[in-house]
Each structure stands twice: as C-alpha cells, then as structure tokens.
Amino acid sequence: MSDFSPGQRWISDGETELGLGTILTVDARSVTVLFTASQETRTYSARQAPLTRVVFGPGDRIDTADGGQLAVERIEERDGCVIYHGQTDDGETVSLSEAKLSDSMRFHQAQDRLLTGQVDRNDWFELRYRSLHHHQRIARSPALGLAGPRIDLIPHQLYIADEVSRRHAPRVLLADEVGLGKTIEAGLILHRLLLTGRVDRALILVPSSLTHQWLIELLRRFSLSVTLLDEAQSEAFDEENPFESGQCILASQEWLFANPHRQRQIEECQWDLLIVDEAHHLDWSPQAEGPGYACIERLSARIAGLLLLTATPEQMGLESHFARLRLLDPDRYHDLERFREEEAGYTAVAAAIEALEQLPGDAAARDRIGAIIDDGDSRALLETLLNPESDIDQQQSARRQLREQLLDRHGTGRVMFRNSRRHVGGFPERHLHVASLPMPAAYCDQFLELREGNDHFAARLTAADLGTHDARLYPEVAYRALHDDAIHADTPWWQFDPRVEWLIDQLETLGSQQKVLVIAHQRQTAVNLAEAMRVRAGIQAPVFHEEMSLVERDRAAAAFADDDSGCQLLICSEIGSEGRNFQFCHHLVMFDLPWHPDLLEQRIGRLDRIGQLHPIDIHVPVIDGSPSEVLLRWYRDGLAAFEAPHAAGGDVLEAFGDALRESLDDGHEESNGLDSLIEETRAFNDARLAEREAGRNRLLEWNACRPERADAVISTVVEQDNDSALPRYVDQALDVFGVDGRDLGNGLMHLTPGAHMIDSLPGLAQGDEGFTVTYSRTRALARDDIQRLSWEHPLVMTVMERVLDSSLGNTALALLKHPSIPGGRLMLELIYRTHCPAPRRLQLGRFLPDTGIRVLLDESGTNLSDKVTFSGLSRNLQRVKKGVARELLKSRHDQLRELLAEGEREARRELPTLVERAQREMRETLDLELSRLKALSQHNGAIRDDELRAMSDERHALDTVIESATLRLDAVRVIVTVDKDAR
Ligand SMILES: Nc1ncnc2c1ncn2[C@@H]1O[C@H](COP(=O)(O)OP(=O)(O)OP(=O)(O)O)[C@@H](O)[C@H]1O
C-alpha cells in the first residue's frame, strides 16, 4: 500500500526550488503533486517517487500560508495527514492542518543534519560552495546559452542569436543567404532558451533529407539530444502520443504534412517553440494553400515561439513570402497589397539613415530625416544633433541612437533577419567552367519535334507524364520516357549522352583526390548516372535521392564525406541541393540546370558555405544548340547567377519567365531575340538590385548584424572561454564524484567512470567508455571526436545541479591549526542561499539567481566573513574522522544552536540589499525594453500587442516574486581550532 495520502505535504528531492508540494491524487501506480509556489504539477511513479515527506516536530517554527509563523508544541495524525498544535507570534494557541503550511516553506536541512551528527567530507562542502558561487555567476552572465556551443564565434550569428533570444516568445524569419549559418543561429537560440527556462519543449520540422544532419549538428555543436521521430518509431507507442516522448522532437516535414493523424497528435501537445527549416516550401496563394503551409499555420497559432529558416524566402513567389511573414505576425502582415506598397518606403528610410552622416549643417538631410521620424525621442535626438552647442561626443551619440531608432522603428528588421555574403565577407570566389558538347542525334530529333510543336509527340510525352518544358530542359528524361521498351533497352540514354563521357574525363583530369558533387534535377537521372559511372568507368558513386530511406541517404553522404572511403563522387537529385553540408568539396557539376534561380543558388550553396577553404569550381556540361544552352546564357549573362547570390532572382523570373520559355523553344534560331531577352533581363535585374540596394536590402543588412553589439557578445563569450576557474572547478568535481581524468597532453583529457564513482554523470555511467575533453574552443572545433568543456556542458551543469539539488556537502567539520588561535575554539561557517520559487518561464536567474551569502562566526558570534575569505580558510583546514566529528558536535550542541541563530540574523541583514539590487536590475532591464517596445509599436506594426502585455505581466510577476525572496541555510561547516603542536 502506498504511504501517500491526498493533502500531505512533500518536497521534491531533486527540485527543492519547486517549494512545498501537496499530494493531489494517488492510485496504485502514480502520485500527482501540486507545487503551488512554482505553479507546477508533477506525476511520479508511486513506488519510486523522489519525494521526501515533510513533518515537523515540537519546538520547530513553521511558516503558515497566511504569512505567519507557528511554534509547534504537539502534532497529531488524522486520516494520514498531520495537524500541528502550537502558538502563533501573537501568543494565540491554534491548530493548523498541514494543508495550511506555506507553499514556499524553507527547510533547515543542513541544520537538521548537523544537529543530528551527519557530516560530509570537507571537499564536498567546498565543492558545494563553489557550485553555488559559479552557478549564480553564470546565470547572470550575458553570455548564458551562447558560450557553451562548439562553434566559431561569428559575429552576425551571435548577434542574431542574442537579439532573438532576448525577445519574449520570439517569432522570426532567419533568412541569411545560403550557407551563412541559419541552422547554427537556430541552434544557439534554442540552446539559450532551453538553458534559461524560456522554452521547455520544442518541435523541429525539417525536410527529410536534413533530419540526420540536424540531429548530429544539435548533438555535436550544442550538446542537445533531440528525439528523432518517424512513422515506424511512432507506431511503437501504440495508444500513447509519440510526440510526448521527448523534450525536443525532430521530425521530417514530408512525413508530417502527409499525415493528418500525426498532425493531430502534435497539436494535442504543449510546445513553446517551433522551428521550421527550408520554410520556402510552405507555399500559399490567395486561391490555395499548400498542405505544409496549412499544417504550420495551425501549429503556429498554438505555439508561442516560431523560427522559420530559409535562404530563399521568395522562391515560391512574393505571395508565399508574405504569407509566411503573416504566420510570424498576423496582426502586422494582413494585407498583401499594403505589404507590396511598404517596400517603396524603405528607400526613404535608408536615405534618412545615410543622411545622418551629413548632419549637422545640411538642410536637405535634416528635412529628409524630419519627414520620417514622428516621435518625441527621435525629435529630441535630432535636435541634439542639430544644436550648434552639442559637442562631438554628444553628436555622435545622438547620431548612433537615431540610426538605431530609424532602423528599429521604421525599418524591416524585427521579424526578418538576412545577412548576405557581401556584408559578412570572407567567402571564396566562384569560377564557372562551361563545357560545350555535341548534340547526339536522338536528342536532336526530340528537340526538333518539340520545336515544331508536333501534337503527336506532345501527346506521347503527356502519356508518359512529362511536360514539354521538362522535356526541353531534361532531354534524357524525355528519351527515357519515350523509349521505355525492349528495343531500346540496350541503348540507354547514358550510352550516347556526351555529358557522361565528359564527366568521366573530368574526374580523371581532376584526379581521385578531388571530391566532386554532381547534381541532376531528376531522381532517375541521378540513378542512371551512377549506373553509367559503374558500367562505363568502373566508378562506384553513391547516390542521394528522395526515394532512398533516411539511413541510405545518410550513408551515401557519409561515404562521400569520408576521406578514406575512396568515394570521389556523390550524385544527387535536386533534394541534395538543399541544406546539406558539402563544403569539404569544391567542385560542383551541374549535370543540368534548374528552372528557378533560387534553386541554382541553393545548389551552389552546398559548397559555398562557412568552412569552405577553396574557390568554388562550378562545371556545367551543356549540349550545343539545346534549350539548356539558352538557360545557361540567361543565367550567366542576364543574371550573373554563377558569380554571386542574386538578390532578385524570383522577381526576374516572374517578369521574364514566359519570354524565357519561348526562347527555350526557339533555341538559337532566334539568337537576336535571345540577345535582347538577356539584355532586358540584365537591365531589369540591375534596376531591381539598385532599388533593393537603396531600400530593403540596406535596411535588412544594417539590422541583421550590429557590429558593436556582436563584438560585445563575443567578448563576454571569450571571457568565459578564458575563465581559469572552470578547470579548477572541474578538477575538484571529478575528484569528489570519483571520475578518473587522464591527461593526454596537448590540452586533452580523457574522462572515465572511476571504480568508486558516487553518482552517474552524462556519458559517465559505470560501464561507459568515457570521452575526451578539452577546454579549448579551437581544439574542439578541429576534432569532432572530442567534447569541449564549458560552464554550459551537460557534465558541468549536471554536477552543479546534482550538488545543489541534493544535500551533498551541506555539512562538514574540519580542524584549524593556526599559530595565533588557541585550541578548542569553535567557528561556524554558514552558507545561506536565497529562496525564491518562481515559474521557470520568468527566468528569475537573470536578476536573482540562487545567491549565496557566507557568514563566518567565531565562538562569540562575531562575524569574521570580511576578514577571512573562503579560500584562505579552506587552505588551512584539516580533515577529521567522522566519529570524532560526531562526538565534537554532540558536545557543542547548545553552542551550535546559538551560533546558527546568530548566523541567520547576520545573513538576513544582507537580504534587503540583494532584493533591492535584483529589483533594480530587473526594472531597469524590463522598463527599458518595455518603453522601447511601446515607442516602437506606435510606428512599427511588427510589435505585437501580446508581446507588450506579456512583458508587462512578466515585470509585475518578477517584482512580486523577488519581493518574496527569503533565505535558507544551504550548508554549514563547523571549524574547531586545535593547538599548533597538537597531532
Ligand atoms: N559558427 C560556426 N562555427 C562552425 N561551423 C559553422 C558555423 N556556422 C556555420 N557553420 C558550418 O557552416 C555550414 C553552414 O551552416 P548552416 O548549415 O547553419 O547554414 P544554413 O544557412 O542553414 O545553410 P542553408 O542555407 O544551406 O540551409 C555548416 O556545416 C555549419 O556547421
């Protein structure tokens, strides 16, 4: 039978910060507890609940729910619950059921243990003190959540991660150009939000070709273990909802979007953050919305935080782009026409920002700025800037602030972040190599039929489920479709297609050391090409396409990445052109060309991404006189699409797509027509780029990275990287927990579970092989197989939590031999900790993390903590056997009680200062942010009302919680002096 009864009060062993819990329900298998102070409800297995029953005895003082105290005189049990009888502070005799105890009750566990003779090792006590100290320090650090991940410190990424993760329930579009690190940005944001408690559960939806890459990236770079779900795994859950099986769930978009049952299950769960990669696939138009869009629209209405990732936001057209912005903020983006018009205003905003440099003195510049700003703050700044009496520093500061305000209040930036290569810099050149190849007779006939508009031929294509447009661009597909019979079985297209021969020659010329990525538009072309390589040249090339299983795809990509596998070549269908990391290779073969310029850019982006060390060689084999040759010329000469990312490819295609289709048809017979199409395309593209450059792009770039802020974030991260306290702390922790650390030299250490390990730690349970660690970011980045230890590494965080959430080291007794202190004296070192239960989402740690107050009393109750430091004292202490310690404690019981009471009085004196400081910091931070948001919301609809309301509620809740902070004794060490000659 269970010992639990509804109404009883218990505390969580592992999470004492939840406060005092009340049993709500009990059945044979489970027990549900409500922690009112922290607004949490937990259900545990009844047999192994990590809970401790709270019952007080005569003589104890207990806090009551109405804010008073009761001195317990006697207790009585009724129906499994306790009734306390005693006196209130007013001397009134009352009886109080345990249900009426304060939910934020303090527990004198250290005191109870000490007075009952339970003492821990001295080094445990020291580890406890240091854990508390570092825990509070790290919780307040502005680098929190950004310092731990194993990444290079790249300014634009850290800026975005910092900016976005400060917001309440961020909803943004991460739209950096291909390969600039959107996944890393999303990982950083997720990591920080999880660490700070702003997010408890996250759902990550990515194209199936990227699930594994995300899984690995989140684990290796962010030490985040996410649960990857697919249909097979989900079926194993029977009746249960598989999406409840982990804190962070990763799933493929294709699977989910095609599965209404799983969508419903997802909608039944509670999520705080949704991340959607390659979000350009979510297509929408006023007439119809794609299934992906519809699914994400429903989810985004229920989930507070939303990160959409895409390098090519306009790939599916401006309407879809607008619709995705609307998902992020429906209040702001509700009218497509207005959205189109707004873009025209960006040029004026950008011009006003530029005009700031001409002030004071230039009347036109002043008018230009004056025409945009319409709030008091900005006007005051403008006046400072214009005032002849302002000195240079005042002017510069006003200019900087005004620039920020113009961007912030009138720009594009709160929802969308887009960095470009041009702005970030340091990317390699791209070199285009075109190979002109002869037209084979079989293709020539096909193109002729297409050009002549032969109805019979078109009908055959239709019967084979192929459009004429695809037949033009992908002749091998048409050939295959039209000759799918026994007669042609011996002459597959790859026997005569000159691109195959060319590829074989090219591989030989480059040499087997050069990796080559081949992308073909169609899956079957990729499969046939791999066969051709094997049959014609004896080359085994892995293939990567949409009909392979995830495991097969990842195996193919891994074989290509592996230097020892001997795989020179990977042949992908178009799905290989999205999201994957192939920057270890720098030769890209476009076996054919995609129709959309954004797809072309996605293809190049596989190689041209962060980490690429060489110029990119783009090889395009093109058949003379084929429609692809026309497309190539249009891309190369009209859009300059092979040189650098093009900013307006979608617009250009919309304007010239029809004419281009006609040109594909005409081929070279109409070369004048093609020349003028290219000329017109170039002029349109240049004009559109110039327009965007003057307006939207400029604002986006200015907003996507503010270098001073990025530098400030980076310096706080670097400061943590260089924190010499970390190795000291880790050494001590490993020693206490019984983990063996073997020095491997060169800054590396291998950790294994020791024979007497006291508790299992992540990756270090008995039987585990352990792992190799380094403190150096550079070394960790160079080797995937070693982990980087930081204050945010799961091992370090778990150690801190285990120590602080348990009673480990909360009592100790040591001897002090000091020449100037006579033997037999007693000292008491008391560590108090602020106690302030609050819901995790309030992220109280920013302002009032669990804070330690140290009080050192001598025998007479004099406070010596300012004179004798913790380290100074610790260095001079000696261990004492437990039995001796117990005897000593027994003999000094009364004296200890008095000193404990005195210690509490001393510590309490410091509490108001801590509370005031926390409140001041909280108000300064939130009031500033709130007033900024309020000012912004008058001009920029991108600020949502609920964001303002939530911040104001948060401020209020924090104020109340901080005000209610109390202290509890966390640990106590008794120090007994011994004569200097004693042995
Ligand atoms: N700060 C960093 N430190 C180390 N590696 C990085 C960093 N940023 C990006 N990378 C690497 O660069 C590559 C590109 O990054 P990522 O995949 O995040 O880019 P992306 O913008 O999401 O790309 P795409 O547009 O193709 O989806 C990845 O291999 C990633 O691991």
TrEMBL record:
InterPro entries: DEXDc_RapA, Helicase_ATP-bd, Helicase_C-like, Helicase_RapA, P-loop_NTPase, RapA_C, SNF2-like_sf, SNF2/RAD54-like_C
Domain Helicase ATP-binding: from-to ranges: 163-331
Boundaries of every Helicase C-terminal domain copy: 499-672
Entries under PROSITE patterns matching the protein: HELICASE_ATP_BIND_1 (PS51192), HELICASE_CTER (PS51194)
Descriptive protein name: RNA polymerase-associated protein RapA
Subunit note: Interacts with the RNAP. Has a higher affinity for the core RNAP than for the holoenzyme. Its ATPase activity is stimulated by binding to RNAP.
NCBIfam families referenced in this protein's UniProt entry, alphabetically: PRK04914.1
The family this protein is said to belong to: Belongs to the SNF2/RAD54 helicase family. RapA subfamily.
Record's function text: Transcription regulator that activates transcription by stimulating RNA polymerase (RNAP) recycling in case of stress conditions such as supercoiled DNA or high salt concentrations. Probably acts by releasing the RNAP, when it is trapped or immobilized on tightly supercoiled DNA. Does not activate transcription on linear DNA. Probably not involved in DNA repair.
